[in-house]
Amino acid sequence: MAFEIVFWHWWAFGVFLLIVELLAPGMYFLWMAESAFVVGVIKLIVPALDWEYQLILFSVLSIVSIAVFRLFLKRHPIETDQPLLNQRAAQYIGRLFTLEYPIVNGQGRIRVDDSTWKVQGEDCEPGSKVRVVAAEGVVLKVEKAA
């Protein structure tokens, strides 16, 4: 007796893909899971559908749904109330700090909250006020504040 793929196999595969989506977010497995559920429904309606056509249908639906999602996301990007959330150095641009350490030969350090950052800017004495004007990686560019 040969093994036959039935509708609930596709639904179980869809649930598996949803679990994978939870573990590896990126919205791709979600659309593949949707495709698996759709193929399961089609298999329920047309039980004689051969497994080759099921796989082709699943592949085409997955590719099309992912492409449509990417196109939608490109035209309607996700907006956030904290666009700099994962860009810590960029969050400091425009802020004013008091130097605890001098800037000598254009290099120095400042204390920001609970950490210290490398800074580049004109030479300044400890106690001087500086404003962060740019960030390059882990180095903050500063200038004397008036």
Describe this protein's structure:
With 146 residues, this protein is α+β, with helices and mostly antiparallel strands. It has two domains: 7-75, no CATH class; 88-144, Nucleic acid-binding proteins (OB fold (Dihydrolipoamide Acetyltransferase, E2P), Beta Barrel). The chain has four helices and five strands; from the N terminus they run H-H-H-H-E-E-E-E-E. A five-stranded mixed beta sheet has the order 1-4-5-3-2, with no helix packed on it. Strand 4 (129-136) and strand 5 form a beta hairpin. The longest helix is centred in the middle third of the chain and has 25 residues, at 51-75.
Number of strands: 5
Percent of residues in beta strands: 15-25%
Figure out the total of helices: 4
How many domain units?
2
Shape: rod-shaped
C-alpha Rg (nearest Å) = 28 Å
- Record the strand order, biggest sheet: 1-4-5-3-2
Summarize the biggest pleated sheet: 5 strands, mixed
Instruction: Please identify the structural class as seen in this structure.
Output: alpha+beta
H/E series: HHHHEEEEE
Mean pLDDT: 90
Range of helix content: 40-55%
Report low-confidence residues grouped into runs of 5 or more: none
Gap between N and C termini: 85 Å
Task: Note the topology.
Blueprint lengths: L6 H17 L4 H18 L5 H25 L12 H4 L4 E3 L8 E6 L2 E6 L8 E8 L2 E6 L2
Parallel strand pairs: 3-5
Antiparallel strand pairs: 1-4, 2-3, 4-5
